[in-house]
Amino acid sequence: MTDLPVSASVDAAPVDPRLAELGIDAAVPFRVATTTRFRGVTHRDGWLLHGAAGWAEFSPFPEYAAPVAAWWLRAAVAAATSPSPPALRDAVEVNVTVPAVGPVDAAARVEASGCRTAKVKVAEPGQTLADDEARVTAVRAALGPEGRIRIDANAAWDVPAAAHALARLDAAADGLEYAEQPCRTLEELRDLRGRTGVPVAADESLRRADDPIAVARSASRAVDLVVLKVQPLGGAAEALRLAEAAGLPAVVSSALETTVGLAVGLELALALPGLAGACGLGTAALLAEDVVDEPLRPESGRLVGRARPVPARVPAPADPGPLRERLSAALDVMHA
């Protein structure tokens, strides 16, 4: 076991020599359960990596192939070994994230959060537009008339379906702040934007591009704002470059990370010029457990900048073999 700068003993794996060459001196596998099914998963797993700048997280979703996971690994290495970007503010407003749950549960999550903005997941496989309407209606009642509601469809609709759904959900919300990635491509989002008065935000269509910066330069003709996620974009520096290339307002969102990963997202949000509103960084509440003693959770709807957290109690996966293979495959891509 490696001696780690943690407040309690955690089990560290031997560091792959290729990681050591990148400045990583400790690697700890983890698996944490979620409170409810979210994006089709019931747990999050990955690696906590340590370098000269502190702890970072590598946790690509299991369906992502090695070329995509390599972006997440670049982000973790950069966060663990490079200084954080200079902060422009000391706190950010955050939204409460509402999974594809029933209306009673949705309202309870909003009321417990203290947030004035809610991001509501819609277009869940196996559910109907009526389910989405009921959820959004309950969220509006819980927020009150002054609260803001945004929805996230994770690219589930084609253009006609999106135009129809947005009209109904905009009415249910009594006005949507924006719709995140209602369709798959920028071309589809551009078409949709001409058919709806709801502002449109891009997420997957940028971060899953072969060259996100190049695609971002054309984003202003297709969408109204961009959503930035540190891990999928390869790190905070790359996310800041993308925001500059897009020339659009931006918000920062999580990739359902533990508090270690959320802290790096918060560092990006604190440093982002032109921050467009509440950020999706209040997702620690969606985890049934965490890797730190004090999870990063909002107070009165805000997260305040603080020192990078140190893992203290890391739930280990029963079989770390698949995680080790995923890490090795991402390293293969980085070293190709």
Number of domains: 2
Report the biggest beta sheet as strand number plus sense, adding barrel if it closes: 7 strands, parallel
Q: How much helix, percentage-wise, in residues?
A: 25-40%
Which consecutive residue ranges, at least 5 long each, have pLDDT under 50? none
Q: Give the number of DSSP strands.
A: 12
Write down the overall geometry.
Answer: globular
Distance between the termini: 30 Å
- Write down the secondary-structure element order: HEEEHEEHEHEHEHEHHEHHEHEH
Query: Could you name the CATH homologous superfamily of the largest domain?
Result: Enolase-like C-terminal domain
The strands making up the biggest β-sheet line up spatially as: 5-6-7-8-9-10-11
**Structural class of the secondary structure composition?**
alpha/beta
Number of helices: 12
Per-chain topology:
Blueprint: H1 17-21, E1 26-38, E2 41-51, E3 54-58, H2 66-81, E4 91-93, E5 96-98, H3 103-113, E6 117-121, H4 129-143, E7 148-152, H5 159-173, E8 178-180, H6 186-193, E9 200-202, H7 204-207, H8 212-216, E10 225-228, H9 230-233, H10 236-246, E11 250-252, H11 259-271, E12 302-304, H12 321-334
Helix pairs in contact: 2-12, 3-4, 4-5, 5-6, 10-11
What does this structure look like?
The chain is of the alpha/beta class and 336 residues long. It folds into two domains: 17-84 and 315-334, Enolase-like, domain 1 (2-Layer Sandwich), CATH 3.30.390.10; 91-304, Alpha-Beta Barrel (TIM Barrel). Helix content is 36%, strand content 18%. The chain has twelve helices and twelve strands. The strands form three sheets. Strands 5-6-7-8-9-10-11 form a seven-stranded parallel sheet. A hairpin with a 2-residue loop joins β1 and β2. α2 packs across α12 (321-334), α4 (129-143) packs parallel to α5 (159-173) and α10 (236-246) packs across α11. The protein is globular, with a radius of gyration of 19 Å. The two termini are 30 Å apart.
